[in-house]
Amino acid sequence: MKKIILLFLFSFLTAQTDSGSLSPVVTYWKTLTQEEKETFLFSYITQVYETHTELKSSVGYGGITEWYYENRAEMVYGIFDQLEKVRISNMVQWIDEFYSHGEYANKPFYEALEFSYRFAEASGSNMWEKYENLRFDKIQPGKD
Hints:
Blueprint: H1 2-13, H2 24-31, H3 34-59, H4 63-82, H5 88-100, H6 109-121, H7 127-134
């Protein structure tokens, strides 16, 4: 039962619609206050960590566990390692920035999280400096 719930939650968090309307996650995200977004974000990264841990213990390494690590959990482990340097509140601001651009408004949450993490840890005091320092063209979300 726990696996089904985890897979359902994972599916919900990565859902996209092709109709041009906002995905359920983006719609939900935009209704939250700053504090609620911080709670949601911390819950999300914790959920990814716990899902990976559960996959390792229930099905072992390789297959879906390896894919999940490479495509979701590896970044989350990096975020946990950097929580003393990168504040959740800064990451929330960058997720908001990501979703404020129309072309990214319906992208999956993990892409917003990747964007957020890279910008939150980047050097620079403003967006332009961060763009320059990160070579924005290399970190744009995957193109469809």
